[in-house]
UniProtKB/TrEMBL annotation:
GO terms for cellular component: pilus. It is found in: Fimbrium. It comes from Photorhabdus luminescens subsp. sonorensis. The keyword Signal applies. The keyword Signal applies. Its main location: other. One of its GO terms (biological process) is cell adhesion involved in single-species biofilm formation. It comes from the Bacteria. Residues 46-197 form the Fimbrial-type adhesion domain. Belongs to the fimbrial protein family. Gene3D superfamilies: Fimbrial-type adhesion domain (2.60.40.1090). This is Type 1 fimbrial protein. Keywords: Fimbrium, Signal.
Amino acid sequence: MNIKRIGYVLTLASWLIPVMESQAREERSADINGLHGELHVFGGLTEAACQLDMTSAWQEVNLGNTPNSDLRRPGDKGTPIPFTLKFRDCLRTKGAVHDMRTGNLTWNQLQPVVTVSFVAPADRDYPHLVQVTGITGLGLQITDTANNDIRLGERGRPRFAAAGQDSLEYYVTPVRTPRALGVGQYRAVVDFRVNYD
């Protein structure tokens, strides 16, 4: 019986070899005649409670012109200017985070918990301020909507993200530092990291 099966398999294979060779010739012919193409598909799979909206990933915050008369003494502040981090596709998922400052646990069974950390060179005199380039005597303070100071490099206070779309608002404020106050254009680059737990 095994010999019969082997015979059937060999017979079937001998019939299929010409068909397979014919198909291979057609594929090679398609390459030659320009009828063949390739589509390269790529992407990434992420595991996050929300997606950062691309309009939030790269932002410019224009603080405008601040009169030096508003910044006479160290600690004097200019006008706070808001900026927003927008989130989309937020899932209904459990979230829990310990607040690094208070030790309190922020949690919810249906809402993710988000913390944001801002990373930038710190001012030499006031390390809680972002260092600017271009002038001296000025640093930038980042605060949340409750006017909580954001410590550079540390996670901010935990915040809930609503299902669907949500946003977090922050403020940048020019602050006078002890060094001699210069006049002119200044800038700073601040990176931020969004953490979901």
